[in-house]
Amino acid sequence: MRLLDKTVVITGGANGIGAVAAALFGKQGAQVAILDFDVHAGEAKAQELHATGVEVAFFQVDVADNDRVKEVANQVIEKFGKVDILVNNAGITKDAMLVKLDAADFKQVIDVNLTGVFNCTQAFLPAMLAQGKGKIINTSSIAGTGGNVGQTNYAASKAGVIGMTKTWAKEFGRKGINVNAVAPGFIETNMIHTIPDKVLEQIKLLTPYSRLGTPEDVANAYLFLASEESDFINGTVLEVDGGMLK
Questions:
Q1: Axis crossing angle, helix 16-27 with helix 39-51, rounded to the nearest 10
Q2: Between 20 and 30 A from 241 (CA), which of 63, 131, 139, 199?
Q3: Per the residue annotation, which of 58, 154, 172, 186 is the catalytic one?
Q4: Cα gap 176→146, rounded to integer Å
Q5: Helix, strand, coil fractions of the chain, as percent rounded to 5
Q6: What is the residue-level pLDDT of the chain in tens, covering all 246 positions?
Q7: 7-240 adopts what CATH topology?
Q8: CA 241, CA 113: separation in Å to the nearest integer?
């Protein structure tokens, strides 16, 4: 098992990519803390994983709420005793062309996707520093590396995640902590359900594999960056987009 006796924190772990990653990490021997705003889905996922033998706990949190994040960080450490891996996976979209983008929607996406990564990393970092080792994996997007029509707020948040990732890699690398980012392409999750079928077909044509990515594709990238196999990888952005033409 590649993560035996490791404690993993996954934000947005109740649904989509996060839920798949939680199951995969548990299968690889990790203790899993699922953090999510969705109480029903979070509790259900925790029960599902517990039934398969995974040591798992669910913690309800809005990652944009700094005070609540700090509370949950303390609860996770009290429960598991340590934190080895943090996967900042939580994210939302509020898409619109710039001329129609509501200021409140811009702020909400930044609050969750960017400030939420800051909040969670700052809250769990002391535990990693104390043990002199850790892995932080931030979820960016190809929208953050190349922009995307109708996603001013989302692209800005994900580009910001890359900037923080590279900064933290320099700050924490000397402390034994690896910080990397994963930039998924178009992945088959609820996030793409608002995209018209015709547009999805065009997206597939831009990908050499002629398909969308799966949550498993991204979760496997998380696993690699969380494992000892990536110990000399720091400050990188791993694009999981099937070689999509940009």
A1: 20
A2: 63
A3: 154
A4: 30
A5: 50, 15, 30
A6: 999 999 999 999 999 999 999 999 999 999 999 999 999 999 999 999 999 999 999 999 999 999 999 999 999 999 999 999 999 999 999 999 999 999 999 999 999 999 999 999 999 999 999 999 999 999 999 999 999 999 999 999 999 999 999 999 999 999 999 999 999 999 999 877 777 788 788 888 888 988 999 999 999 999 999 999 999 999 999 999 999 866
A7: Rossmann fold (3.40.50)
A8: 19
Task: Give the integer Cα–Cα distance in Å for 223 and 24.
Answer: 8
Q: What is the pTM of this model?
A: 0.96
Alpha-carbon distance of 83 to 11, in angstroms, equals 13
Determine which helix (DSSP H) or strand (DSSP E) holds 51, and give its type and residue range.
helix 39-51
Query: Do the Cβ atoms of 48 and 25 come closer than 8 Å?
Result: no
Catalytic residue status for 154: yes
